Amino acid sequence: MTSNQTLDAANMTHQNPVQEQATPVPGVIVTPGATGSPPTPVKPDRWRERYARRLWVSDLLVLVWVVFGAQIAWFGLGNAQVVMREDTRISDVSYWAFSIVLILLWMWALGLIDSRDYRVIGSGNTEYVRVTRASFTLFGAIAIVAFLARVDVARGFLVLSLPLGILVLVFERWLWRQWLVAQRSSGEYSARVLLVGSRESVSQIARELERNRSTGYKVVGACVPSGAVADVIEGTSVPIMGNVNAVERAITATRADTVAVTSTDDLPPYKVKQISWALEAGRQHLVLAPSILDVAGPRIHTRPVNGLPLIHVETPKFSRGQRVVKRTMDLTLAGIGGILISPFLLLLAFIVKVSSPGPVLYKQVRVGRSGREFEMLKFRSMVVNAESMLDDLRSQQDAGNEVLFKMTNDPRVTPVGRFMRRFSLDELPQIANVISGSMSLVGPRPPLPSEVEHYAEHVHRRFLAKPGITGLWQVSGRSALSWDESVRLDLSYVENWSLVADFVILLRTARAALAPHGTAH
Prior knowledge:
Elements: H1 3-12, H2 17-22, H3 47-75, E1 81-84, E2 93-94, H4 95-112, H5 126-148, E3 151-152, H6 155-185, E4 191-196, H7 199-211, E5 217-223, H8 247-254, E6 258-261, H9 271-278, E7 285-288, E8 300-305, E9 308-313, H10 320-355, E10 361-367, E11 373-379, H11 390-393, E12 399-400, E13 405-406, H12 415-422, H13 430-436, E14 440-442, H14 449-452, E15 468-470, H15 483-495, H16 499-514
Parallel strand pairs: 4-5, 4-6, 6-7, 14-15
Antiparallel strand pairs: 1-2, 1-3, 8-9, 10-11, 12-13
Helix pairs in contact: 3-4, 3-6, 4-5, 5-6, 10-13
Main location: membrane
Region (Disordered): 21-43
Pfam families: Bac_transf, CoA_binding_3
């Protein structure tokens, strides 16, 4: 029986209550109604509206606290007046009334710029950018109106309200985001996604979405060209709900509110448009998910041409300006940081020297930007003859991956070295590499020449950037990562570099160093 016949048989069981009880269709959710009647529609989960209302209430409470707090801090509890110099027919307005109007306008500006829209919440910095933009735009408009209307508004009150309001609003949104991520990790407050496309593309997108649940997409089913109900997508637990002609019935069965088209090669002409026509406006959504992974938003541009939405992906490159900015940040932070922690570095050097025989520093040849080799510095954390012991230990490897050798309890590591590695203290001498220019504070992992010999052609793209003391690979699992995952993270960093991302990685590194989770070996 074909997949279409299977779904048709499933629909026919609704006409016979006995058959419906005896032969339920796997993966199909049916809410019983009256005998012989169609299934009762399941009430959609309005989590987007609930979350937006909560944001609205908390935004209002924050602005009330900020605006009236700034007014009291600047004027006290008295009844200060906004002076109207131009039109004597308008009496001066109390700042209590002005503050109320300011709060209402601020709330209106946050809503007008869609800062509570479901498309910007939960991931990325778009939500924070919109909050900041709405706030600056509002206060800029107030300043212009006050100048043109010759209204004397206390500049100190506005200067205090604007930055304080932005900071507290962003912090409040960040707290809500942490709550939302926690909810999404258990499958709540997420879009219910039905994937449509080839088995390969559906499998790829399903794995990515299941790996990153915090993005808010919960895959509930898939429709593939040759799909059979009750089958699952390879490597996942996603059930197949039928072929690509069964999308509407699959939406009803899975209660999906989002259809993600992962590929169009195997779809009939105009199928994507037919799917979009069948969706309920405002409640169900269509997403086109091209199989382009690890490409950040700034590199992607959509340009419609005669009704055809063309997706342009810019070629990754480091401009001269970006290199200057990154080098300036490296020199500034490494220089200041090196001076501040120099007493601690001397203490560590002394402990390494007296704890075991051998040099304090360990120099190792690594491969840097453009494939050039350099000597990387570390505090010695192993016995002197560690390299000669490596071949005998390969059979006992229980961490790392097929290219990177790691052991959970490496016998070559000294007791002091084990402590330093746990908190990444052995990496601190690499500050000298950063100052000399062979490394950066943040970048791809610096590989050994022997590791580079095993690289596939595409992996060499990591040499577009200087290697880093820390990087996306380090704050995402380190030794617990597979080789493919390590490469993916490094390439993702190189191709999507930004100064903000560097600061985020540095903050995550500090947190990981203070509270390690057992992945540093």
